Amino acid sequence: LVRLLGATDTIAPYAKDYAKYILMAAPVMTGALSMNNLLRFQGLAVYSMIGITTGGILNMILDPIFIFSLGLGTSGAALATALSQVISFCILLFMCNTKKECITIHPKNFRPTLSIYKNVIYGGIPSLGRQGIASVATIIMNVMAHPYGDAAIAAMSIVSRFMMFI
Questions:
Q1: pLDDT tens string 2-38
Q2: Cα within 13 Å of Cα(39), Cβ side
């Protein structure tokens, strides 16, 4: 998978260490992202911000501890991110389930119908397309930067992060 995404021989071991934990945390990260959007959609952006910001700040605190103090390197960065996302997920779930203005998230409330699936697909297709195109573009950039070495891939990664920040 990391090769397919453009990792070089020297980057691949680090990418594998990172991906191992991030892929395990992906369902929780997806849930946190969904609840973040759910809260914002319902006009509760402050609660959304609390959950996401807490996770982000916690990640910044845990990264140096896991990477350097515990000597976990790239795996430590992934573990810090995964743990931070689990905390964000718990905060967002708490916000969704305790605020009367918000739709309560509970398995007993899950009653799928064709109508609901149609609405979800109709509303989600634009975001899926946008995110899919951005992912494919990033993969292509990594593959195209591959012949120029790790520095070129790292530079592209930094530029991408900077553009996402803006």
A1: 988 888 899 999 999 999 999 999 999 999 999 999 9
A2: 24
